[in-house]
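Fig. S4 source data, part A: sequence.
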Amino acid sequence: MVDSFTASLFEKQQARILRALSTPERIQKFLDQELAYNHAGTCYSPSLVLQHKKAHCMEGALLAAAAFRFHGHPPLLVDLEAKHDDDHVLAVYKSGNLWGSVAKSNYSGLRYRSPIYRTIRELVASYFDHYYNLRGDKSLRAFSLPVNLTRFDRIQWMTRNDEVWEIPEHLCTIRHTPLLSDATARALRRVDKRIFAAGRLGGSF
């Protein structure tokens, strides 16, 4: 069901695009096929993402969250915290009592997850073996609970014709839950060479 208030905030052309993004699978396909990877140090609002037709992981998650809200679902983000690597951001959703996610990434294994996970921790753990830096170190360490972006409605985060740095700044300051202990992290093997190569397949590095 389309949220009429959210739909009214976007220009007609952008609203038409968001109207078509009615499922997580369609959102993920749009992120993968219609948006170039943005290597610039920006934080575009969803409206600007649609204007520029490019996004990095933060911007892709914001657009996905706006699409979820457009269709009457809560706009939820989860921040993944890494060591010696970039953080990653997921737009998460629920189907019944199970969690899934949508994401923009250069790494093929850090994108969509079907809604089969009972908890956010289970969902995040599914990214672990695919989350690695260029040295091959498995780098995922912690995660946040879902953040509902309605808290940023006051800054017009969906349609602001400007960058929305308030959101990643907030994600960096909230509590993160460790995914593994320091001892476990020290004992980790580097990522398998085949997974390393597969994860970078088709990416823009």
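Fig. S4 source data, part B ends here. The domain at 4-199 is CATH 3.10.620 (C8orf32 fold).
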